[in-house]
Amino acid sequence: MSNRQQFQSLQAQRPLPNGWRAEWSSNHNCFYFVDPSGACTWHDPRDSPPIQAAASAASVASKPMSQLHDKQIDQVRRPNSAATTPAAFQTASHAAPSRNSAAVINSIHRPLNAQTAPARQRTLKKKYCGCFSTRSSCCIFWSVFTFILLAGIAVAGFFLWPRSPTVTISEPYIPSTVAPIQIAGSSLASASASNPATIILNMAVDVTVFSPNYIDIFVSKISFQGQLINPLTNTNIDSAPVNGIATNVNFRSKKTTAFTLMFTVTHPISSGAALQILTGTDEVIHTVVNQCSSSNGKLPMAYNIQLSISAISWTGFKPMSSGKASIPCPASATELINLLT
Questions:
Q1: Rounded distance, CA 241 to CA 157, Å?
Q2: What are the DSSP calls for 142-165, one per residue?
Q3: Is the model more confident about 150 or about 115?
Q4: H or E, element range at 308
Q5: Across the strands, what pairs with 23?
Q6: Is residue 294 classed exposed, middle or buried when 0-12, 13-18 and 19+ CB atoms within 10 A define those classes?
Q7: Quick check: 75 pLDDT over 50?
Q8: Domains of the chain (ranges plus CATH)?
């Protein structure tokens, strides 16, 4: 027979005093009693006067769980037992002083639940940046990481970024490996607009390049371009371009590299050269003959030397050096006139 059935059987035999009532506690699986003033107690008023358990329950609730005696805990929790008989929960050990007895019981249970709370909090505790327990630790980590990353990029950029080399060229000279003057196309006598002849002056310069870089720099192409200058007007002669190319040159880091760059001065002739010499209508021929009339004659020119560095070709940046130089006359004025006429 359950506790509830036993109590109902007892109630039929012995009614409660006037003004008292019994209430069922589903949490404790037993009845508690309410007196006419509204105070609650576990003690059955039909039995002998209760031993006051309020102070005992309150003192038990205020003590840490580690200090509670097994007997005290058992006294407060005993109403939970399904095997408790009406006579058992009518004893003084189950008495409660007021309607706050449920709160007293809960205060005894609370330390048990509190023991597992830190573990649950640790399990559910928020993680910052995936692995840090505090926001400040996450911020410090990423600040240090970002600083190291930027410092590494700065150091790498300082040592790896290509710097413009210093380019120096010598005075042009006539190379010994090729004829100083060549005629291409038709002969000078039969040159016409549809079939022009081209005068080619073969020259060379010695190029010296100092690389300030910390790594070797590979230059895919070095372009040497310019024009002859008319010394009378000090203007460039567009019909006498200067062109030269060197390819695949490797500049060693912190070292000087020297090489020879061949270039040509070309000039097309579309009518008889002799007529142009006599009339002075060809600016290039007229300038060459006049400048080479003396033994130390020179042909002034303006030039640009441009480097195409493979490592930074995608940026479109090409280091350039400009200047002026003087080309030695490939022949005397008399020899030139005889050649051209």
A1: 39
A2: HHHHHHHHHHHHHHHHHHHS--PP
A3: 150
A4: strand 298-309
A5: 32
A6: exposed
A7: no
A8: 3-123 (no CATH), 126-160 (no CATH), 166-340 (2.60.40.10)
- First CA to last CA across the chain, in angstroms? 144
pLDDT digits (tens, 9 = 90+) for 284-310: 888 888 888 877 789 999 999 998 887
**Which structure tokens are listed for 237?**
């002669």
Per-residue pLDDT reduced to its tens digit, 7-40? 777 777 778 888 888 888 888 888 888 888 888 8
CA torsion, points 178, 183, 186, 187, in degrees to nearest 10? -130
Please spell the DSSP secondary structure of 237-268, one letter per residue. EEEEEEEEEEEEEEEPTTSEEEEEEEEEEEEE
Which residue do the tokens 């200067």 mark? 242
Across the beta sheet with 40-41, the strand order is 21-25, 30-34, 40-41
Q: What is the DSSP string of 64-85?
A: -GGG--HHHHHHHHGGG-TT--
Residue range 33-68, pLDDT digits in tens: 888 888 888 888 887 665 444 444 444 444 444 444
Q: How far is CA 167 from CA 164, 208, 304, 327, in A?
A: 9, 6, 11, 19
- For the record, the structure tokens of 124 come out as 């559910």
CA distance 287 to 293: 10
Q: What CA–CA distance (Å, rounded) separates 13 from 30?
A: 18
Distance of CA 294 to the CA centre of its chain: 66
